[in-house]
Amino acid sequence: MATKIPTVRTVRALRKQVQDWHARKQTVALVPTMGALHEGHLSLVRLAKTKAKRVVVSIFVNPTQFAPHEDFGAYPRDEASDRKKLTELGVDLIYAPSGKEMYALDFSTHIMVGVISEGLCGASRPHFFGGVATVVAKLLLQCGPDIAVFGEKDYQQLKVIERMVRDLNIPVQILGGPIVREEDGLALSSRNAYLSPEERIIAPLLNRTLCDIASDIAEGRPITDALQAGRARLDAAGFGVDYVDARAAKDLGVLQDEVTTPARVFGAAYLGKTRLIDNVPVRKRRAAKGT
Ligand code: AMP
C-alpha cells in the first residue's frame, strides 16, 4: 500500500521541508491547483515527477480570483479524494493552507501583469488574472521550487505567469503541460461537474468548433471570417459565447488577418451557468516537397 503523503498547512512547515530537500541537493517542482483533482491535474504531476526529484502539490481555492457573483462557494472541494489520487502518484508533499494562512485580514498587495492579462478571459473577468498572479507569486515565494508546472488548458494564465516570473525575476522555471481531454474532445475541468446531462452532450462542440476554426485559418481562410462562423455555430447550439479569438501563441498578440507566426485559437462560452474555456493550436500545413 502506498504511504500517506504528508500535508502541511503553514508557510513555515512548507519552507522547512523544501529547504531540507534543497540542502540535500534535491530539485523541487510545485504544481499549484485548486483541488477537485482530475486527470488534467494528474498529468501535470506526472510531468513534474519527470523533471524534479521532489514534487509538491498545492491545493488552495483562491478567493481573490473569483468575483462576488462567481462560484467560489460552490467550487468543488474534496481533499480526502485529492489526497488518495496524489498518494497513488507518489507525490512528496501536499501544501493545503487555510485562507487565513494565505491572506492576512489587512492583506493589501496585488500584482497586476499588464497587457497580456487584458483581452480574452481578462476582458470579462477583470479581477481574475490579478488574483491568479498574486496567489501564484505567493505560492512561488512560499515554496521556493526550482520548477512550477501549469496547464495549457489555461493558456492565458500560463502566459501571464511566465511574464510575471520574468518581470519580477522570480527564480523558477515555468513549464506548461498539454491539455488532457475526454474522448469526445471536451477539456477536463473541475467545473465540468456543473454540467447537466443535456449540457454535457453539447459541451464538446466548443472544442470541435475551435479545431475547425484552426484548420480553416491554417488553410488560408481570413481569420475574421473563420471566427465569425465559429461563433455563429456555438450561438446556434445554445452556448452563450464570451469570446472566440485567434492570437499569437508566444505572447497572445493580436493577429493580422493571416497567420504568420505560431498561433492558437481561444474560446470561452457558457452552457447554462457553466463557463467553459478551451484553446487549440493552428497547425500550418507544410507545403509538399517539390511544390
Ligand atoms: P485549477 O485547479 O483549475 O486551478 O488547475 C490547476 C492546474 O491544472 C492549472 O495549471 C490548470 O491549467 C491545469 N489544468 C486544469 N485542467 C487541465 C487539463 N484538462 N489539462 C491540463 N492541465 C489542466
What does this structure look like?
By secondary structure, the protein is of the alpha/beta class. The chain has ten helices and nine strands. It has a six-stranded parallel beta sheet, sandwiched between helices. The protein has a three-stranded antiparallel beta sheet with strand order 7-8-9, covered by helices on one side. A hairpin with a 2-residue loop joins strand 8 and strand 9. Helix 6 packs across helix 7. It is globular, with a radius of gyration of 20 Å. The mean pLDDT is 95. It binds adenosine monophosphate (AMP).
Helix content percent band = 25-40%
Strands, total number: 9
Percentage beta strand: 15-25%
- The residue-averaged pLDDT reads 95
Morphology call: globular
What series of H and E elements makes up the topology? EHEHEHEHHHEHEHHHEEE
Radius of gyration: 20 Å
Spatial order of the strands in the main sheet?
A: 1-4-3-2-5-6
**What's the end-to-end separation, in Å?**
59 Å
Which class do the helix and strand fractions yield? alpha/beta
Structural descriptors:
binds adenosine monophosphate, six-stranded parallel beta sheet, 291 residues, three-stranded antiparallel beta sheet, alpha/beta
